[in-house]
Amino acid sequence: MSATPTDFTRRTGRPAPAARRILRQGGYEILAMLKNGEQLLLLILFPLMALIGLTSTGFLDGWAREFGASRVDLAMPGILALCTISTALSGQGIATGFDRRYGVLRFLSTTPLGRGGLIAGKALAVLGVMVVQYAVMGAVGLFLGWEPRPTAVLASVPPWCSGPPAFTALGLLVAGTIRAEATLAVVNTLWVLLATVGGTLLPAALPRRGRRPDRAAALRGPGLG
Fold first, then answer.
1. 179 vs 208: CA distance, rounded Å
2. What is the pLDDT of residue 29?
3. Which UniProt keywords apply (predicted)?
4. In contact, 134 and 80? CB cutoff 8 Å
5. pTM
6. Does 43 fall in a domain?
7. pLDDT for 93-112, tens place per residue?
């Protein structure tokens, strides 16, 4: 007398649907990034420090006079761009580099997730973390007086759609080419260069000379004028 196969035996060996596998991998990567203290410094704390620094000092005053905007209105686009770089380039580059070092990528590529699912999960993780970053930075920016205009928000959609894939691809390229320690150094160096001299936080072009703040007059003060 033969036994009738149960539902459990019928389902044995069947992988979950591709969409579910990608969602689970993306959720795992999001939690891994947000639970890591070093990643939180890079993803949340450093952009917050940059936002507070730019709005509480006079670095942007020359451009503020030229464009007729407040410090926070000038700072927020660069801060959001820095969040994208932090997550897509540095975050994914570092995580993928060390996953490659410890054989995690080789293991995952042999599972039903596959290479394509792994990359899709990483892309989903980048978008998920960026949503958290944008929510935090947006809340702080609004508290500091940020007034986003609808036209500016619409104009930011194309860069927002093209930036994360480009920086994620660059981070994965670096992580897949050199050792994990070298990846850590390279992506962090790129992050610093892009933030400081790459036109991310400060406009690449100097304000027009006629509207630059007169530092000499400010140093002389009213009694020495």
1. 44
2. 92
3. Membrane, Transmembrane, Transmembrane helix
4. yes
5. 0.81
6. yes
7. 999 999 999 988 888 878 88
| Helix runs in 36-156, H state only | 37-40, 46-56, 61-67, 71-84, 92-101, 104-109, 114-143, 150-155
Q: Give burial (CB, 10 Å; 0-12/13-18/19+) of 138.
A: middle
> Of how many residues is the chain composed?
225
Q: What is the DSSP letter of 62?
A: H
Residues 116/173, Cβ–Cβ less than 8 Å: no
Asked whether residue 8 is domain-assigned, the answer is no
Instruction: Tell me how many degrees the CA angle 133-63-197 measures, rounded to the nearest 5.
Output: 60
**Neighbouring residues of 15: CB distance < 8 A, sequence distance ≥ 6:** 21, 112
Q: State the residue for tokens 């978008």.
A: 127
Does residue 4 sit within a domain? no
Tally of structural domains, the chain: 1
The span from the CA of 188 to the CA of 134, in Å, is 21
d(CA 97, CA 111) in angstroms, rounded, equals: 19
Whether residue 220 lies inside any domain: the answer is no
Note down the domain range covering 161: 17-204
DSSP classification of residue 210: G
Q: Is 199 left (phi over 0), alpha (psi -120 to 50) or beta?
A: left
pLDDT tens-digit series, residues 2-16: 555 555 445 556 778
Compute the distance between CA of residue 225 and CA of residue 5 in angstroms, rounded to an integer. Answer: 96
- Three-state DSSP at 138 gives helix
- The 3-state DSSP class for residue 89 equals helix
Q: Which amino acid is at 99?
A: D
Identity of residue 195: A
